Amino acid sequence: EIHIREPTEKEVNPHLLPGELLLCEASTVYKYIQEDGSNRGTYGKLVCTNFKIAFLDDSASDDNEPQFKNKIVGENDITLQCVDQIYGVYDEKKKLLTGQLRKYPEKLIIYCKDLRVFQFCLRYTKEEEVKRIVSGIVHHSQTPKLLKRLFLFSYASAAPNNTDGRNQTVMFDTLEDWRDELERTKGNVKYKAVTTNEGYKVSEKLPLYFVVPICISEESILKYEGRGIPIWCWSCHNGAALLKMSAFPKEQDDSTSQTHKAFLDGIYKTISKPPYELLKMDDLSSSLPSLQDIQTAYTRFKQLFLIDNCTDFWATDVKWFSLLESTNWLEIIRRVLKKAIEVAECLERQHTNVLLIEESATDLCCVISSLVQVMMDSYSRTKSGFQSLIQKEWVIGGHGFLDRCNHLHKSEKEEAPVFLLLLNCVWQLVQQYPLAFEFTETYLTVLSDSLYVPIFSTFFFNSQHQKDTNMSGESLKTQSGPFRFLTVWDWSVQFDPKAQAFLNNPLYAEKPRPDKSQRKSTRFKHQRQLSLPLTQTKSSTKRGFFREETDHLIKNILGKRIGKLINSSDEPPNSFREFYDSWHSKPVDYHGLLLPRINGPDIKVWAQRYLRWIPEAQLPGGGTIATAAKILDLMEQVQSLQVKMDEEHSQAISGDVHSVPMLRKSPRLSSLFPFALLQRQSVKPALPTSTWKDLEDEDDLVKRDDEFVDLSGDMS
Questions:
Q1: Are 42 and 30 in contact (CB under 8 A)?
Q2: Which of 454, 518, 577, 612 could crosslink 675 through cysteines, CB 3.0-4.6 Å?
Q3: Pair 208, 464: CB distance under 8 Å
Q4: 496 confidence band (pLDDT: 50, 70, 90)
Q5: What whole-number distance in Å separates Cα of residue 378 and Cα of residue 50?
Q6: Do 319 and 372 sit in the same domain of this protein?
Q7: What pLDDT digit, counting tens, does each position of 90-104 carry?
Q8: What is the CA radius of gyration of the chain?
Q9: Which Pfam families does the record match to this protein (predicted)?
Q10: Contact 13/27 with Cβ under 8 angstroms?
Q11: pLDDT grade for 573, boundaries at 50, 70 and 90
Q12: Model confidence over 522-571: pLDDT tens digits?
């Protein structure tokens, strides 16, 4: 039953960005509130622009502003790139909507790539408006488009005075940036930055500037368009280096194959002699899952979180662990982390150069090289260092964001969540060693969301060449001239200073002082407590699925069954196990090498990203946010005392720890804060526990008495 109320007369207009055009709209659209099983909702206007789909709530007031507000994409906005799939409901049956529509649905369901689910009822909307809005949304978000038709270009040509916003992030688009990085890592003795690709005369896939071993000649680089050339990624403190190389195609005739082999042998001999370390080669296409496997696993995995309603949540909960296991996504994360540890062992312990080989060296090479640097170089665990790393290895390194994210809807065959895989792996490290990172999991979550915001050029090109060749264009302000694209690293475009405070980790461990042996051991214990994804509670002895699984139901802890499955296969070799166990037996140096724990149950679900829109999965007053809130409160008290003690020099007080009043307002914060609203409480049904068992044995339904469990108290 839908409680119909007359929509208010107030005219609500969409907030349009520079270059944004309203394409179609429909009034009297009813948006369902997702969190409960009833058909409660709100009336409003549904609009589609060349940037987003937006629902304008008639009853919305400024008092109901979310705590963590994005200035570009509102709570009810979906960028066209963020739309995953659109379904129409016809006579209670769901049907995928693509292309031309003969019949228009009475209900529209939009699944988003950031895992939000929107449901709109169109029964009370005029037929003409329904046709326009549904066909408009389907056309603009699902059909293939040209690169220059991306909103990125409309915005860049219309936005006034785009800020540069580098914010200490090294962009790696100049020769100087590469030379500085060589100097920072002390790799400039054996490696050199080259200008051979200026004008893209070697290859359009390679960046303008990159680094190779000093002994490699310009002639060798030019010979096969950069294929077969070891390109430098990073140098370890002991001189060992991480290199990557794009391989020659495997299917070739014998004579070509022999020529390529001879060329490679020559290169390997050159870089295996002193002053270079021994070389270990690792072909990632054979030692890691294929991109297709990664895409298949992620497609299965995300389905677990695209939940329409309360009933679906509880239905999937019964088989949650087996469903999670069957996606294979967490196993892929574990294998990638294990590979990164193997590479770290070669560099750190064996003093061996590691050459990562892949067909284009722009997918799994980016994942492994970035992870190794995050694990081995504490600079990459600072915010500016991590951003510079993404620029170096991914943006300038030539990862095909446009194809891998399928921003243009050209080909699903090319689609694969490679960058998301990296962020998932980094999140494992962040939640295991929170004190070692200057940024928070919230930072990683908003970074993953920014993949689908086409006002930044960072994630919307396949290569530096593609960006450079599309820079020229007509600008509304200057008549003609190059586009000035924004970079995602200017966080002030999306968030005000108060919201940006959530991206910085106030618990980040500063560089340890010389007298640190005792302090390390206490910190070691403390960080392990902090790394727990939830505050532990005593399980109830009462029957009922929810009560028995209280700690595990919140879906960011893996069960022992998964641990058994993972540990039984793919056992690491002895030297690896020795290196791994030896490191984990010592106290953690937060500014030294970090190795993730990779046994089955250690690999967890990134709860904040995947569960933030599901109220049933929230713990009011629980999770790491409960710990962080208390520590932040204490830090703010210390800071205010510091100011009182030294009022004349108050300017010198660090501004990194921003006051976050929301943390103090309520002891009942959601564990998925800051994305879950304080007032967004789900109504917990009284669950007949027999219903769960009946899913397995329907015959006993009549014989069994229902035992009702009141869940309202368990969520605390």
A1: yes
A2: 612
A3: yes
A4: very high
A5: 41
A6: yes
A7: 988 999 998 888 899
A8: 27
A9: 3-PAP, Myotub-related
A10: no
A11: low
A12: 443 333 333 334 333 333 333 333 333 334 433 433 333 333 333 333 44
Q: Which amino acid is at 677?
A: L
Report pTM: 0.84
Q: Does 331 fall in a domain?
A: yes
Do residue 228 and residue 364 come from a single domain?
yes
Is residue 709 situated within a structural domain?
A: no
Distance between CA atoms of residues 138 and 40, nearest Å: 26
- Look up residue 200 and give its DSSP letter: G
**For residue 346, what are its two tokens?**
């070669």
In which domain, by residue range, is 443 found? 175-502
Mean pLDDT, residues 37-41 taken together: 75
Do 70 and 186 lie in one domain? The reply is no
Domains identified in the chain, total number: 2
Report DSSP state, residue 351: -
Question: Are 251 and 112 found together in one domain?
Answer: no
Closest CA to 340 of 242, 212, 213: 242
Tell me if 339 sits within 8 A of 287, measured CB to CB: yes
| Amino acid making up residue 659 | S
Concatenating the DSSP letter of every residue in 417-436 gives: -HHHHHHHHHHHHHHH-GGG
Read off the amino acid at residue 36.
Answer: D
Q: Identify the DSSP state of 486.
A: B
Using pLDDT thresholds of 50, 70 and 90, give the confidence band for residue 274.
Answer: confident
Exposure on the CB side of residue 172, measured as CA atoms within 13 A:
27
Name the E strands within 598-645.
none
Tokens of 42: 């709100």
Q: What is the pLDDT of residue 484?
A: 86
The distance from CA 218 to its chain's CA centroid, rounded to whole angstroms, is: 38
Percent of the chain with pLDDT over 90: 61
Q: Contact, 348 vs 313, CB < 8 A?
A: no
Residue at which a domain ends, from 126, 143, 160: 143
**Average pLDDT rounded to a whole number, residues 614-623:** 81
Q: What angle do CA 569, 571, 576 make, to 5 degrees?
A: 160
